């Protein structure tokens, strides 16, 4: 199944901690954090950092448990809600992830990453119309977001709404003119629809936008 385009961010713990370490370094960090937690009174930041390391090590259930503990102390902690949903998505616990994203959006209705992630989870659950509704809202709230348009374009293609998808790919390109992925996705759809002349025109337009000829020629060979 074509998920919400490859533009959907795989949102790792780097949003909370810099990803410059090896797995061994992360395990050392985890050991230090565990020691600090044992010696300290409740400290939300320490627990968030520990959960972030769990995510880096792909210890999904440990991360979920840690975020759950944080939410017992701070029921509306946005980072805990967001990343617990992220971890549950990795474990294919989509309904749990959906609930956390929805709760986060109740608190922060304009949280773009949460709405995009919720749309992704809903698509995984087979609720494509609901996913599309959230992407429509995302675009209303973020009209300059190329990612939002590209995500909707990918979903529309899966829903066989081809003309709408082509329109949204173009909107994504307009907002991020040198994004090769958006160009490739629009051309791929045009080829699928047997509109090869239109696909060639897309390559010509890409040249005018400054995309290197070598990149364009490589894409042409793929199609």
What characteristics describe this protein?
about 220 residues, mainly alpha, 12 helices, elongated, disordered N terminus
Task: List the topology elements.
Elements: H1 23-39, H2 44-56, H3 60-73, H4 78-90, H5 94-107, H6 112-124, H7 128-141, H8 146-158, H9 162-175, H10 180-192, H11 196-208, H12 213-222
Helix pairs in contact: 1-2, 2-3, 3-4, 4-5, 5-6, 6-7, 7-8, 8-9, 9-10, 10-11
What does this molecule look like?
The chain has 223 residues and is mostly helical. The chain is built from 12 helices and no strands. The chain has helices at 23-39, 44-56, 60-73, 78-90, 94-107, 112-124, 128-141, 146-158, 162-175, 180-192, 196-208, 213-222. α1 packs antiparallel against α2. It is elongated. It starts with 22 loop residues before the first helix and ends with a helix. The model is unreliable at 1-18 (pLDDT under 50).
């Amino acid at each position: 199944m074509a998920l919400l385009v490859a533009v959907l961010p795989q949102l790792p713990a780097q949003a909370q901690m810099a990803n410059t370490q090896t797995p061994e370094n992360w395990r050392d960090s985890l050991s230090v954090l565990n020691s600090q937690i044992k010696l300290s009174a409740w400290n939300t930041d320490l627990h968030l950092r520990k959960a972030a390391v769990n995510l880096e090590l792909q210890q999904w259930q440990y991360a979920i448990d840690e975020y759950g503990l944080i939410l017992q102390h701070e029921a509306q902690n946005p980072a805990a809600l967001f990343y617990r949903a992220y971890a549950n998505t990795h474990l294919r616990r989509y309904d749990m992830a959906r609930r956390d994203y929805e709760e986060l959006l109740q608190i922060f209705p304009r949280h773009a990453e949460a709405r995009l992630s919720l749309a992704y989870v809903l698509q995984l659950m087979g609720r494509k119309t609901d996913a599309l509704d959230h992407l429509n809202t995302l675009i209303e709230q973020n009209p300059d977001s190329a990612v939002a348009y590209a995500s909707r374009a990918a979903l529309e293609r899966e829903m066989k709404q081809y003309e709408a998808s082509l329109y949204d790919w173009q909107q994504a390109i307009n907002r991020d003119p040198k994004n090769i992925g958006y160009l490739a996705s629009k051309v791929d759809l045009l080829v699928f629809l047997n509109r090869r002349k239109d696909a060639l025109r897309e390559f010509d337009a890409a040249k005018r936008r400054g995309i290197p000829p070598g990149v364009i020629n490589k894409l042409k060979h793929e199609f």
